[in-house]
């Protein structure tokens, strides 16, 4: 790791938030993506949707101000902005499946260079599959972003030529935000949009095992 520093979770969340335009309807997936809500600028009107039936979700509440009846899909306490609303989760899924979300941000176990997504199971015998609404979001949203560490704890790339884990969706991810760089994905493979200071293209290609456009 000499010569470059990974982005923190907070820096990754802030980086994703920079790319969300005003007026967008956005779903933030369970786990790391939920942190994006804390970095959306207050002067931009962005509508956060949660699949359990919220629209107009705000950032996490201050400590001691949590409302146990106001949670996101990951069961974390959230706030509701002025004008926000609740609705049945069947209506929420209709919104997701009907193409009414501009962006969803999901975590992943693997993403292929062409945009295939695997984020619900590793296929391990003792794994507990948990697809939730990921399939609906990945295919239903106009754009699907993934936010993840680039490497596993054992040093294997999660950005791969072809996914080896069970797929959530085909050719659905357009951009990956990682702790080492940002990548656009498509029919021609992965393209490096940004990389952390001090990390060369050659080293990034060595880490991923991919030929990366830049």
Topology diagram in text:
Blueprint: H1 9-18, E1 25-28, E2 47-50, E3 54-58, E4 79-86, H2 89-97, E5 103-106, E6 110-112, E7 117-118, H3 134-140, E8 143-148, E9 159-160, E10 173-178, E11 181-184, E12 191-195, H4 201-208
Parallel strand pairs: 1-2, 1-5, 5-8, 6-9, 8-10
Antiparallel strand pairs: 2-3, 3-4, 6-7, 10-11, 11-12
Question: What report would you give on this structure?
Answer:
- By secondary structure, this protein is α/β, with parallel strands linked by helices.
- The longest helix has 10 residues, at 9-18.
- A nine-stranded mixed sheet has the order 4-3-2-1-5-8-10-11-12, with helices on both faces. A three-stranded mixed sheet has the order 7-6-9, with no helix packed on it.
- The chain has helices spanning 9-18, 89-97, 134-140, 201-208, and strands spanning 25-28, 47-50, 54-58, 79-86, 103-106, 110-112, 117-118, 143-148, 159-160, 173-178, 181-184, 191-195.
- It starts with 8 loop residues before the first helix and ends in a 6-residue tail after the last helix.
- The model has no long low-confidence stretch (mean pLDDT 94).
- It is built from four helices and twelve strands, in the order αββββαβββαβββββα.
- Helices cover 16% and strands 25% of the residues.
- β6 (110-112) and β7 (117-118) form a beta hairpin.
């Amino acid at each position: 790791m000499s010569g470059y520093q990974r982005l923190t979770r907070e820096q990754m969340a802030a980086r994703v938030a920079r790319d969300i335009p005003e007026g967008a309807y956005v779903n933030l997936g369970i786990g790391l993506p939920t942190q994006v809500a804390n970095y959306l600028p207050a002067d931009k009107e962005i509508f956060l949707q949660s699949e359990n039936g919220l629209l107009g979700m705000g950032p996490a509440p201050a400590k001691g101000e949590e409302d146990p009846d106001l949670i996101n899909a990951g069961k974390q306490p959230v706030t509701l902005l002025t004008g926000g609303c609740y609705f049945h989760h069947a209506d929420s899924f209709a919104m997701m499946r009907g193409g009414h979300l501009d962006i969803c941000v999901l975590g992943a176990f693997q993403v292929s260079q062409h945009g295939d997504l695997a984020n619900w199971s590793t296929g391990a015998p003792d794994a507990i599959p948990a697809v939730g609404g990921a399939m609906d979001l990945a295919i239903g949203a106009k754009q699907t972003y993934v936010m993840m560490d680039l490497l596993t704890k054992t040093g294997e790339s999660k950005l791969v030529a072809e996914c080896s884990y069970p797929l959530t969706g085909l050719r659905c991810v357009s951009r990956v935000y990682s702790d080492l760089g940002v990548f656009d994905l498509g029919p021609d493979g992965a393209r490096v949009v940004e990389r952390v200071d001090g990390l060369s293209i050659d080293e990034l290609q060595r880490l991923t095992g991919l030929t990366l456009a830049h």
